[in-house]
Design a protein that fits this description.
homotetramer, alpha/beta, 5-stranded parallel sheet
Chain lengths: 384, 384, 384, 384
């Protein structure tokens, strides 16, 4: 495609967090440009946000419905190639449905919807419209995560026996939502966040990362959810035992009250031949451990790194890439699919980004965990 | 006391592991000397071991019963001040009982006995004989563990909300016990090891460490134990959810099949004011994390470290002390108690070593975990 | 400014390294767009590179002189706000002079010129034309480097006594330039690189970083340069003793033959009150060390971090920013200056990017080091 | 030898540091016992120290000359097998000479003497008396240092090109010697310490470690010594450029004013095939780096570690050994030599401890560095 892809954004106005991340990740490689947006349900705020972003005011809207209507009417040469949905969870499904059905490709933040039922409905819509739908489980965009996955798939670890995945944060260790802090307010509000706070915000990343790397699917789980901060309406901490289909066991714990932790998503995978570990806060390294030879530190950008990781490398070894670059990698894959769709070509065979199916599995995980915890932290099966 | 304490050893002959550790830990500070031993049930092997250790052959025995008899008959100036029991688990209770009742102080390796019932019987004996009984949960001897405990007790962490303690090892990732390797053989044998392998060998260290630092006692737990290696008779992996009395939650996982892991006992404690973490493989550091100021690395041997840690410091900051020094710290405390007992003085008030009560609590933990797992990983209460 | 800044690029065609870095760093924040370029002296290659970058072919040139001529003639609404020079060293001065004198602002890669004399001439031109000139010593764009500088300036370290700065790499440990590898070929060629290879490529970053953080200027130095790889024409390793004006001492060593090192730029600064260290490969952390309290780990994105660092933070703590983000920070500051210049406003007072003065000081450093080494590694004064 | 070796100590009374280290290192493995000592030139203090150490008062002396006289007269069954000299530097040569000539084997702390001339005289005495003389450059006792040396000797690194060795400490960043602190007082006093403070105390360890691992000998050096703390009589900081015989280059820097540094002895060795690094504060690991495969972390106690390292391993992998264990390894080798000497057997062929030759080379290094610095930090040749 000999032009940049054009996109619009739903949500992500002033004071938002993840919208800015998406914009940066989408444009950093010079393959896409933001040209429209419904950044806020408050039209003035939306316009101010659009002005911050140097957009044409005519393409800044006070609602995503207005945006869908107006943008669908644009001529081909101006038409949006995709939209990015970065609103709170309860506002994922409605715009996703609207834009998909209006013929737009969609990139959507996680968790995919407010409930498993909604996720399944969205899956039906995606399948029917045949549009590209990308779910930004951004950590799977990391080059060394891809290397980890490649090692597992190549059998370097042997049969996987155990998975330990953890995601402690500390930013909600006080009742931040009561102060009006925007990020906290919606995440701790069941109406906007759904049945889970910590699990939906970060637990689902942990589940997705472990699944992406190992290829294993959960069979059942036992979840002990806790609300430590008085007055909070949803859980802020979760400890889970996992049983994967095929016999592997696991532990997943995540927290928003782990004071002093920032964004400490860590994965350890133990096989019967070797093991690996990856730490999101030191994302350029992958540790591989053996029974009988020295521990190895695989570092992004080196010649010995495999093709799957090399493809997602912008700068040489020793020049750290981070969170935004990993996020950008999801977009690079999305662009391949979107460019094909826009150009009327079949999608490439080797696309590597999270899809609506990952979204459905993630919502199933959240709902199973909440159900387990409500029953006194008993084992429950994952819905198929 | 103006002489070295004299001790004898039960177990720890050629090919043993923990016996050599005890000997080194006991003598390193020049306060005790090994003078007798029943190192093996094979008299020849016991004599050879005694010769390795430069002992008088007359004080080397083919059985601990022979040793108890002969040593009890020695004159005061030669009499053992204590014995050290480093046999497999099934041989803890019988010699402990025998020597305590014969008037000797006892240092015993963990887990304290083969079963909770035995542990309780031993507790009765200890209380009745009024002899010193020391259980070598050696990691609690580490100076920075003591610093961690002091911080918790001083309220620096606030109210404890969450504990994550883990202890992965990889040395039993194949069926090593079938090769005749001595350490593996007895640990994987229910007759000598008891109802647990991984939990008894290392899980109990993890439980004890978390309890020592936080002062919290388990209320209930949910344990998923697995035997990954075909043909093995006991579990080699354990994942547990924990609920402490008072409301704190926790995760404990340990493994002997985590390939490439060595002895990676790690503790994280999260309070409502601050958090801490300690890693046994980097034992001279304690990480303290706050919501609102830089993370701190407390390092052994510095002037800012508190009295509890300073007391157990031999060399200046930056000169690493390790596993053996921590183990030796347990002995230094034991010596204070033993010297008082031998001298007919009341025990010091501030003794800091694991006791028979820790042993009982540790066995209760193991039995609860096994019971939970056998019931399908359901929650069970800790026996009081 | 209610539009993106427009820029063109000199160099950076297919197969180049630093051109792609500049493009990414310049556009990531959505404040600038690439619209023109003379990417290669080979017109075909330049056009192919322009096509890769989705540019209008009419604004892709086969030489920077053609570009200067054509772009100067564009109407105001299309006119370039700045050009970026990313050619080998010998092609810094000529285009910089040409574009500055044609009225364009300039961003230029380091080292600024081929020689100190050229750097001084360029300084005269910059002063005369009053255009913005930005030298991309990108590591000083890092948020935690800015925090380090702020701590030094606030007196937190007291009087600086010692600086240790090092920059080992290993990529030229064989005669890579003989294989046709483009990056190696020009750096090892005195005609294109100047009198130094390792010092010009990375040593000058180390000198600049130490100066930026400490505010200290070199008084004299003693340099031992070595060419380890047979057949190489320039040095590939350098060890220097430093004496700063005011009495601080220092060590600087850098290498391109340190096998297995990637981009290990590290800085340690020791004052009489505290010390700090920063590691480029773990750029989100700053270690602060004291005599009498725990070591601190300052981490990017936290509330306790100062204003100078906060300003250059895109994502929250624990979401690693890396090399490209730091590079982008240089551009964000450049944009403030360029927007003012383009808008006819005086430059902001608090601009924070490397200037032509840094370029002159960097070239003086390189020439002093080469002179010292040629004289048998004797001490030489830095030219004033 | 079927008994413990008997030793006496010169120096190391109450308030001393290194004496306690030697005692612990010597006895930890149960192969030696302290039976005599002249712990202080103050007879009362010496007796009190002896009592602390539970010694027979009859074998505690007020001077080493008295000790030499009395101990030489002991019957064979009580006779000292060796003495340990842990006095300040100026009191190394006199007792070493006295005891060697009286027929005792000697273990001596470093630096070996007060001057190079003295070291050479001592070498003559050692050769003439044929007694065992061991110099405790303790860091070379570390198992992973031995592994590093084995890798270099086996050619795994190829030809060595560059060595970076550093040893920053911060404990003398103020004028501690003026407060009466005993360790500082003698080290900063030229009469007791010699011509160097920082270089003699720690620089010589750095030089020795680099030489031990690489097998390279210095050809010439350029040293910039500084006294940062006002009123101090000797240097407290040193920066050196090194040229090894055979063409390798190096950097050595050490400091006692590097605030917040503890005992940060670090070694990096770069060859033309691979590189390695070792950090004293994390002594159980050795990092090996390659151009074309993942970085390796070799960890003490694993099966893949070579024989030279395995021999000096007491506990399994993951159970950290530290400073004292490394020190103890020097003693284990010393014991092999001493036992042979005492038993009238020829010394084992494969002894691995620092000798008087290392002492002479260390003193030559110190004197060359001081000479270089006094001449304005000019290059000087190492005396042969």
């Amino acid at each position: 495609m000999n032009r940049k892809l054009r996109f619009g954004m739903i949500g992500g106005g002033r004071g938002a967090f993840i919208g800015a991340v998406h914009r940066l990740a989408a444009v950093m490689d010079g393959r896409a440009e933001l040209v429209a947006g419904a950044f806020s349900a408050d039209p003035t705020r939306s316009q101010l946000s659009g002005a911050d972003l140097l957009l044409d005011p005519a393409r800044v809207y006070g609602s995503y419905t207005a945006m869908a209507r107006a943008e669908a009417a644009r001529p081909a040469g101006e038409r949006l190639d995709f939209v990015v949905i970065v609103t709170p969870n309860h506002q994922h499904f409605p715009p996703a449905k609207l834009f998909l059905e209006a013929g737009f490709n969609v990139v959507c933040d996680k968790p995919v919807t407010l409930s498993l039922a909604e996720a399944r409905r969205l899956r039906t819509i995606v399948r029917r419209t045949k549009k590209v739908f990308v779910l930004t489980h951004n950590y799977t965009g990391n080059a060394m995560v891809k290397q980890a996955r490649a090692l597992v798939h190549a059998g370097a670890l042997g049969r996987i026996r155990k998975v330990v995945v953890e995601y402690p944060q500390g930013w909600l260790s006080t009742r931040l939502e009561a102060t009006g802090q925007k990020q906290a307010a919606w995440r701790a509000d069941p109406k906007r966040s759904g049945i889970a706070c910590c699990l939906g915000d970060i637990g689902t990343h942990a589940e997705n990362l472990a699944r992406y790397v190992t290829g294993l699917h959960l069979g059942s789980l036992c979840a002990d959810l806790t609300t430590f901060v008085p007055g909070r309406l949803l859980e802020d901490d979760a400890n889970l035992l996992l049983r994967y289909r095929g016999g592997a066991k696991g532990v997943l714990h995540c927290s928003q009250i782990a004071i002093g932790e920032e964004n400490s998503l860590n994965l350890r995978v133990y096989g019967d031949k070797a093991s690996l570990e990856w730490h999101q806060e030191h994302p350029n390294e992958l540790v591989v451990k053996y029974a009988d030879r020295p521990r190895e530190i695989w570092r992004r950008g080196n010649a010995y790194v495999g093709a799957a990781a090399k493809k997602f490398t912008r700068v040489p070894a020793g020049h750290p890439e981070g969170y935004l670059e990993s996020f950008g990698n999801i977009y690079l894959e999305a662009f391949r699919a979107i460019a094909a769709e826009v150009g009327g070509r079949p999608p490439p065979k080797d696309l590597d980004f999270p899809t609506i199916d990952d979204g459905v599995e993630g919502m199933a995980f959240i709902e199973a965990a909440v159900r387990s915890s409500r029953r006194g932290a008993r084992w429950v099966r994952m819905p198929v």
